[in-house]
Specification:
It contains two helices and nine strands. It is of the alpha+beta class.
Length: 133
């Protein structure tokens, strides 16, 4: 099965569909994205915009999800930006906080501590496990 993401005018994913491998392979059995795109356009309209995505993340960094955007320069599907201050890392196509998340000690991990990002203060907050709050 092959997976294709439909993009709107802003290159945001509006849906992801699954089509048969037969609809993406040429006469020699070689996969060709353009054949899959042509098939999707026959189904949903010639003016629609499609990009292949990989359930295993083999192409375009990750599987496309609704609300993700397609970055043509990186040839990547980018998840929605979690916080306004976060920056896109072009090597991973992932959002990164402006400061790295501190490491938890083995004791903190064992006790269930975790960090969350505090956008207002531009810092990581350490939290007790829910049962200890």
């Amino acid at each position: 099965m092959a997976h294709f993401a439909e993009l709107d005018q802003a290159n945001v994913v509006t849906r992801v569909i699954v089509i048969s491998n037969e609809d993406t392979h040429d006469v020699n059995g070689v996969e060709n994205e353009e054949l899959g795109v042509a098939y999707c356009r026959r189904l949903f309209g010639l003016s629609t915009n499609w990009k292949q995505t990989s359930y295993n993340g083999n192409i375009r960094f990750r599987y496309a999800g609704i609300g993700y955007s397609y970055d043509a320069t990186l040839d990547a599907f980018i998840p929605p930006k979690p916080y306004p201050s976060w920056i896109l890392d072009p090597t991973t196509a992932d959002w990164k906080a402006p400061i790295p998340q501190p490491e938890l000690t083995p004791e903190e991990i064992a006790a269930g501590y975790y960090y969350t990002w505090d956008e207002a203060n531009q810092n990581w907050e350490l939290h007790l496990p829910p049962a200890q709050n």
